[in-house]
Amino acid sequence: MDRRSLLALGLGAGAAGLVGSVPGAFAQTNGTNGQPRPAGAPAPAPAARGDAFRVLMLTFRGDTDVERGFRDYFAANDIKVEFMTRDVERDASKVKPILAEVLPTFRPNLIYTYGTPLTLGVAGPYDAPPTAGFVRDIPVVFALVAAPVQVKIAPSLASSGRNVTGAVHVVPTDVQLRAMQSYKAFKKVGVIYSPNESNSVAIIDEMKAFAGTIGAEVLAQPLTMVGNKPTGDGVEDFVRNLKAQGAEWLYLPADTFLATIFDRVGPAALAAGLPTFGATEFFLREGLGLVGLVSRYYSVGQLAASKAAEILVQHVPPQDIPIETLKRFALIINMNVAKQLGVYPPIAMLNYAEVIT
């Protein structure tokens, strides 16, 4: 796929990745200690001497590059912050007990949330009744929410209308599927997802809408549920069954629980001879994925932190800060996986892809 074809996807090639048409990119000029600042945004002023902001960070599966990017932004811009991190250990039902324990004593100025389940656990949907018990009086900044409008975190990306803003990390679904098609054409694409994650359900709908325009079929396989929680039970069989049904690709969406079992899905797909396309950087780096069009986790964390700084330092209300995604994306290809599958990218694609060897 040459540069002209790439532009037809709504993207342009850059030295470090792919440049999309969505807002919220980091400028290439560097801030303090070489850390980037959002394009067009003024550098945050330092906090008063000896006065630190308090930020509660809620993580899903421990520390990731997203959290490292978030914290580094404040350090690079000389903003004093006291961080308290609580990990839910892959169980979003722990959000309420954590808040009940931490809020009265730590009294955070801002809450950071990772992913859709934790964000909804803290802030709830925008149309929840006032008596629902969600946090309404503390700013909430999220990262790694794939579809904030579809899951009712916000009525629009322009404004949540309330105490929430954040950074979206997923490249538009149709753009991803066009990139997949450019690598290797398909008529059937399989996808595994958590049926309790509303963002994943929304992505399945978007996949089906795009597939209908090209005469393709989406084979959607939900994970096994135990009560209201997804499990990895039988996921290897799911992969093999999708291959047996004629899937030519396995798409791995930005699914919070699914990310915790990538180490099982990737090897199973490789053993079945099924190429994989990932929506997140983590799958390409850690999960034996073949290819993906992704936002870098560290940069997503920095974008979220820039919004938190606007709230804390510049006193901008969260509802006045748009929800955005990065403008610069990366097409990543794992050439070791390509060799094992015997499914190689078009030569022209190597001109702009990052290749893992």
Summarize the structure.
By secondary structure, the protein is an alpha/beta fold. The protein has helices spanning 3-8, 65-76, 95-106, 115-123, 173-183, 198-214, 235-244, 262-272, 281-286, 297-312, 335-341, and strands spanning 12-14, 17-19, 26-30, 36-38, 53-59, 81-87, 110-114, 140-143, 164-168, 188-193, 217-222, 225-226, 229-230, 249-252, 276-278, 291-294, 324-325, 328-334, 354-356. It contains 11 helices and 19 strands.
CATH topology of the largest domain: Rossmann fold
Return the structural class: alpha/beta
Using the CA coordinates, give the radius of gyration: 20 Å
- Give the termini separation: 21 Å
The geometry reads as globular
CATH class of the largest domain: Alpha Beta
Compressed to H and E, one letter per element, the order equals HEEEEEHEHEHEEHEHEEEHEHEHEHEEHE
> CATH superfamily of the largest domain, please?
Response regulator
CATH architecture of the largest domain: 3-Layer(aba) Sandwich
Low-confidence stretches: 1-8, 10-49
Instruction: Please describe the biggest sheet, giving its number of strands, its sense, and whether it closes into a barrel.
Output: 9 strands, mixed
Q: Give the % helix.
A: 25-40%
Tell me what portion of residues adopts beta-strand conformation.
15-25%
Q: What is the number of helical segments per DSSP (H or I, 4+ residues)?
A: 11
Tally of DSSP β-strands:
19
Average pLDDT, to the nearest integer? 87
Number of domains: 2
InterPro entries: ABC_transpt-TYRBP-like, TAT_signal
Pfam families: ABC_sub_bind (PF04392)
Keywords: Signal
Protein name: ABC transport system substrate-binding protein
